[in-house]
Amino acid sequence: MKSKKGFWLVLLLIIAAVFTLSACNSEKADSSKDDKEGASDVNKTGMPIVEESLDLNFFANKPAQNEDNDWNDILVWNHYRDMTNVNVKWDLISPDALEEKRNLALGGGDLPDAFFLSQIPNTDLLRYGQQEVFVPLNDLIADYAPNLSKLMEENPSIKKAITFPDGNIYSMPALIEEDFLSLRLSARPWVNEAWLKELNMDIPETTGEFYEYLKAVKELDPAGNGKTIPYGGTAIQELIQWLSGSFGVMNRGPSNSANIDVDPNDESKVRFYATSDEYKQMLEYIHKLYDEKLIDQSIFSIEWGQFLANASDNLYGSMIFYDPIELFGEDIGGQYNSMAALEGPNGQQSYNKISSPVWETANLVLTKENPNPEATVRWMDHFYSDEGAKLYYMGVEGETFEETDGEIKYMDHILNPEGDMTFEQSLAKQLTWLGSINGIIKADYFQGGESAPQSMAAAEKIEPYATKEIWPRFTFTEEENKVLQAAGQDIAKYAEEMRDKFITGDEDLSQWDEYVKTIESMNFDEVMKVYQQAYDRYRE
């Protein structure tokens, strides 16, 4: 009997297991069927994206420049809804509440279908990607994003920037057209050419000539009563980054902002350049400018409003800023001419202050709640095309722009609005690009100051000196992030504090060796190991 009971018990267990496995396979089959049905609803090419209207809920950062408009009823998104049959319902978050609301959504489980322009850091992309809160996009991009795929093929650094060490892509990026150098330069150097002529001097081409010009401006004091400021800016960082190419540091651009570049003696190795002899020499030069009051003494604390007021009063002999005519008007701004890269004391002359074409990693991030990832990826991919860029940055032909003889421009009611309304205010009533980059931004369709004639001419002058290889931000594993969030942040903070003290003279450069020793004692080797591993993956 015991033997027979054992037989039936085993048989029942086998039958139960078979039914359980069958049920699981049935569920998987149903799930697979649902997935295929969802994908079959999506047109891989052309418009609309889906035949039946699809509602999606997007969590989105709403820049301050868009404060007075509602994306749920605005020309650009209404037009795109009608084109695609995808109806995005926008949950718009102000920038000052963005991080808090984003973290609440992620932590509380009340997820949108996607996050749009929400500034999700790489650490969170990896964390929530590995927790399967965010949808891996590798296959979806390959199948439903031909425009982004083409851009990644043409510029492999784009794919490297959005691929994490686990091999997954968790977001679709915001990009700058690689040839749109003027935008990638951001603020750039300008010199007061009217004062140069008064001094009978040429535009400086070396660090020595720049020093002599600043010194001559101080002595001339064209603003009168000692108000003249030979060099001014909104942050000392701008001057440091501009001069980096004159001293051979930051040779792969500023995107990895932890003082990391490539070792000039071995390009397979990373270097922490903030302890290099070249960096010290640059700080000695900048300290000399500051000590002789050739740099605005308030540059470490100046507000934008005060800087603009000083510029409007014509107090600056040189600056690093955006287009002077666009910002200060023709009378003041027209006095300025652009500078390129200065040749340094050791003959180095490159322009390294250039952003990566990957402006932002997390333009669009899909969550596990998304009912149709295929359609959502297609929705985003349109903005990497020429037509999509035109739509986002120029709007709708006949409504916001007109094209004549190949020249595209905003219509008069936007360029010259009635009453007290500004250009930006009239634009924001119909478009949403102010304060944000979506998809790919192209020079042909961008009407900001970086496309103004003065800025484009400046970029053309700089182009021969532009560093050819610019790194995007590296991606890191969870363990590597722990090292960087601890010792890495401590080192970066200390290096920045000491940099400023060396420049102002609050710390004498005779203490340089002590500064280097202190950094090397701060788990420095472990931090450098992390960056080397990230760089090795990037090179692969």
Automatic annotation (TrEMBL):
The keyword tRNA processing does not apply. The keyword Magnesium does not apply. Keywords: Signal. It comes from the Bacteria. Residues 1-23 form the signal peptide. This is Extracellular solute-binding protein. The lineage of its organism: Bacteria, Bacillati, Bacillota, Bacilli, Bacillales.
